[in-house]
Protein: Selenocysteine-specific elongation factor
Amino acid sequence: MEKRYFTIGMAGHIDHGKTSLTKALTNVDTDRLKEEKERQISIELGFAPLYENEEIQISVIDVPGHERFIRQMIAGVSGIDLVVLVVAADEGVMPQTREHLEILKLLGIKTGIVSISKIERVDEEFIELVKDDILAELVGTVFEDAPVVLVDSLSHKGIEETKDLIIRTLKEQEMRDAKGAFRLPIDQVFTVKGQGTVVRGTVYEGTVEEGQILTIMPSGIEVRARQIQVHHKPAQKAYAGQRTAVNLSGVSKEDLERGDVLVSSEHFIVSKTVDVAIRVVEDLEHIVKQRMPIKLHIGTAEVMGRIVFFDRNEIKEENGEILCQLRLEEEILTKRGDRFILRRPSPQETIGGGWVIDPRGDKYRFGDRTIEELEKKKVGTPMERIIAALIEAKSLTLNELIKRTALDESSLLEELSGAEFILFNGKEYTLKSLIDSIEEDIYDRIQDFHQAQPMKSGVNKAELLQTMQNRFPKSLLDYVVENGITNQIFKRKEQFVSIAAFVPHLPKNWEKRTENMLGEIKKDGLKVRSLKEYFTAAGIPEILVSDLKRFLEDQELIVQLDEQFAYHGEVFKDAVDKLHNHTGMEFEVGVAKDVLDLSRKYMIPFLEKLDAMGLTKRVENKRVWQS
Structure:
């Protein structure tokens, strides 16, 4: 079973015991770690490992304070898979509790647990009263039907039950997408002495591996992942859902900032004009006016901009979804479906939140026609949704497409029967245009290899695919190569792949010297000098010797007996025929020496070569012909 990774968040009013509960669950005090105390790549500033076995890994994010709560919670819904709402038994629901609930709702978080904390401070009767009060407040929220646990972090009462409940809940939950292109919204940038620039954040989607080439967006700076750590431990890979630090080469700390995004694909869109669907908070204190300044929180980015309506000039209160546009002062990286929060800069207030319909909006006229177009764009045709999902993930199974497109199976299969789509491996769908693009890329890579290495029969298939696996699933690359072989675009010899029409050949500038060398080897018959002497005499540089030797062997122009001697291919074949014709089914070394007139210096390597080729088999002091 594939291991799954989850991050849970603590929400609630200040001083209701979020940090204490985190410490009781994990034995990590997330408030004690300071940036200046760090001497290595650390993931635990506000984060702690909760549980891990071979099937699942769960981390906790403790985010004290309202402003930081907003920033961190918006780091996805990717950053948070389950929220523990902490409410103190001696205080009950407070203003910040309600704010956090509103934000969770706007971000679309659907899984929660209610933790009534500090229960040792009140008697049992009061706890029941507080519980009833809390449940009444939670009606209509994600926590309306959430399980309730009673805990006290100091006495550890209810801690194990809470931990078990978290684990059981997440074991029944699906992990976020680890198959798509890698995306990590950066929430911290710093340097480590002797290592350089380090960024950290929660992996929104996809995977990243050590040595991978990545891009910082929106700046477009190319970097390499030198080292990866997850909770203080070095890791070869990091997956969607993991809190991760990445040591980067190719960039300085000054070139980066919180809100930048580390990605593995060029398909993400950078934009300053975004079409969105928003909902406003229930208790809006101030009117939201047309083109009013707003602060957008998306991923880990905070960007100033203005909100543009097309069917109204202000909002006083609104229960439904509003289609509008955000025009930003700075570029952001986002894509369809990303969640965000909108805040008023002054006076500070959460206005609402929503999701991105189109990250690349245009300028539209005010009026119903624009709203109709945005409505169409919001819904999207089935074909558009399928193509968008496959452009992002490259290949998906039917079940994965059902989840991503919200289409039923019969509708999906009807659309997928079109010529635009390819089913491979009997279970995965992709775009024909993507197959053609990958095939062209592979063709160009192999052709470049042939030009650089004309003597080699082809490029190692595993090495070829490895250079492209950070952009495409291995199963898809495998299919493209095998399909190309079937269609005689490529051909394969053992593990090596080449263009179908390619024939290994000598580099033109070394053809004459190689021919002269082969002539000398043939002229010397069975009593040759060391192969190294022939290469030296022909003036062939040491750097070419290994490849040229392999080429001559592959083409059967020479047969290497051992590290020292090699025969011309024709001379070797004639010698084998002569020996076979002048001996019976078996023969001794002395007989072979007489037939071929060879000294032991040549005879022993020659006979051992026959054994290695399966032409003869040594039995005690004799050789037995195998055919």
